[in-house]
User: Fold this.
Amino acid sequence: MIILNQVSKVFNKGKQNEFVSLREISITIPRQQVTVLKGPSGSGKTTLLSIIGGMSRPTSGRVTLDGRETTSLPERFLAALRRETFGFIFQQFNLINGISILENVMLPAVPNGERHAPLKGRAMDLLAMFGLEARAATRVELLSGGEMQRVAIARALINNPRVIIADEPTAHLDSKLSGELITIIGRLKQEGRTIIMASHDPLVCDAAVVDNLVEIRDGEISDSAPAK
Amino acid sequence: MANIEKQRAIIDFTLASLMRRKGKNAALLVVYTLVVAALASVMFLTKSIRSEAAAVLVDAPELVVQRMVAGRHEMIPLSYIEKIASIRGVKSVRGRLWGYYYDPVFGANYTLLVPQESPPEEGKVAVGQGVARSALAEVDNIMPFRTSQGALFTLTVARVLPAGTELVSSDLVLLSAADFKTLFGIPDGMATDLVAEVSNPSEIPTIAAKIARLLPDTRPIARDEILRTYDAIFNWRSGILLAILSGALLAFFIFAWDKATGLSAEERREIGILKAIGWDVGDVLMMKLWEGAALSLTAFVTGVILAWLHVFAGGAALFVPVLKGWSVLYPSFRLTPSIDLMQLAVLFFLTVIPYTVATIVPCWRAATAAPDSVMRG
Assistant:
C-alpha cells in the first residue's frame, strides 16, 4: 500500500517564477489494484507519479510504501527502490537509441550484478511474451510506436517490480494499440502487481480493469472514488 | 562476484554506447592516438639516441687534452706527451689526428680520423655509410679530395664501415696519418689532440688540474663532460621538437576538453533515463569512467605501439632530421629499442588520466540532478 500524506511540491521556491505543482495531496493507493490519476495537462499528475516513484522528492509531506517512508531515503537507496520496487513506462517511452531491444530491456538490471546468461534469458522471455523475441537484436529506433510501447513495458518488468508506474501510456498509441495496452495492464494486475497510471484518455479511465480513479486539478484532488 | 558481473554489464553497455557515436569517437580516437604517437616518438627517439651515444662513449678516452690559442683549438705538439706522461697516475698518452673536411662537390662535411689501431694503408680510406651514400662511393672507387694547397688528392675506398656503427661513423672517413698530414698540410710532430689513460678513474679531475697547471695553453676534457654535453644537446633538441608539437598538443587538448566536458542533450537525456530506471549516481559515473578509460587507453596503447614502429622499425622518419646528426650527413640506422618506463608513466598520466577525469566531471553534474526531467519528455 502506498500512502501519500500532505504531499506538496513547489518548483523554484522563493524565486519570481515559483510554481506550486501539488498542494497537500493525501491519498492511499491500494495494493494489487489499478489506480488512475486523471486530470488535464498541467494538473500535477506527472509530478505526483514522479514523487510516488522516488524520482523526485516532495517539498513537504510524506510518502510511505508498505509502511516504509521513502521521501527521506538517501539517493542511493532511492535508486535501489526505483530499480527493485517500481517499473516505469514513460509517455515518450524513453528507450535508448542506437542499442538493441534486448539491451534496452536488460538496462534496469545492470546495477544488480546478475549473471549475464539468466538475465538475458529473462529478457528474452519478456520479449517473447510481447511477441518481440525475433526482433531482439533490432535497434529500437527502427520500431513502430506500438513495438516501442511493448519494449518499454518489457523493460519496466525486467526486475519483476511490485508496482508499475505509467505516465500517459496511450498518448502515442491509436485506439487498437491502446486496447492492447489495457489488456496487458489487466494481465499485470492479475499477476498481483499494483498499477498506477496518469491519463486523461477516456479509453484508459473508463476501462474495466481500472479499480480507482483519482481526479486532480490545479495540483489538488478534486475527486477520488472507486471506478464505476 | 556480483560486482564483477555488474562491471561487466556496465562495460558492455559502455562499449555499445561508444559504437553508437562511431564517427565522433573514431575522429577523437585518431587525433588522440596521433598525439600520443608523436609524443611517445620524441621520447623513444631521444632516450634511444642518448643511450646509444652513451654506449658508444663508454669506449671514448677518459681524458682528452687540447691546445688552445686565443681561445681556439690548435694543433698540439707531440712533445707534450712526455710532460703529461710524467704526471703520477697517468698510464699512457698518445696523439690523435682528426678533423673535418668539406666536400664542395656533394656539399657534405666529413669527419676525417686516423685510427689508432690498424689504420688504412697510405692511399686508402675506409668510409662511413653516410659518406658512401652521399659520394656514391663503393669499395675500390676513387674519392677525390683537395689538399690545403688546393691540389687534387685522390684516395681509394678500401672498405665501407658497418651500418651498425652509423650513429658515430656515418660521416667518418678513416685514413692513414701520412695522408691526413698531406691533405691538411700538418707538419710532423703535431697532433690534433692528445688522449690520456688514467690508472684510477677517480683521479681524473686531479690529473686534469695538474695538466692545466703544467701546460697552461691546454684544455683537458674528461669523458663525463662530453657525456653531459651530449645529454644537454639531445635534451635541447627534443625540447625544440616538443615546442613545435605543443601547438598540435594545445589544439588536441581544446578538442578533447570540449568533447569530454560538454554533454550533448542526447547524453543528458540518457543519463536521466538511466537514473529513472534505477541506476544510481555511482553507476552512471562508472559507465562514464569506463567510456573515458576505454577511449584514452586505446589511444594510449595504439599511440605507443605506433611510436615504437615509427622509431624502431621506421627509423623515426618524421623527426630524425631534427634530432639526429651533427653534420649534414644524417645517419640512417636502426635504433636499439630503449624505453624509459618513467617517461611512459608520465605520458600516461598526462594523457589518459586528465581525459578520463574530464569525462566524469560534467557527467557527475548531470547524474546528481533529479531524474524526473525524463518524465516530462
Observations:
- The mean pLDDT of chain B is 83.
- Residues 2-57+229-376 of chain B form one domain.
- The two ends of chain B are 37 Å apart (CA to CA).
- The interface with chain A takes residues 1-6, 8-10, 12-13, 16-17, 19-21, 266, 269-270, 273-283, 368, 370-372, 374-377 of chain B (CB under 8 Å).
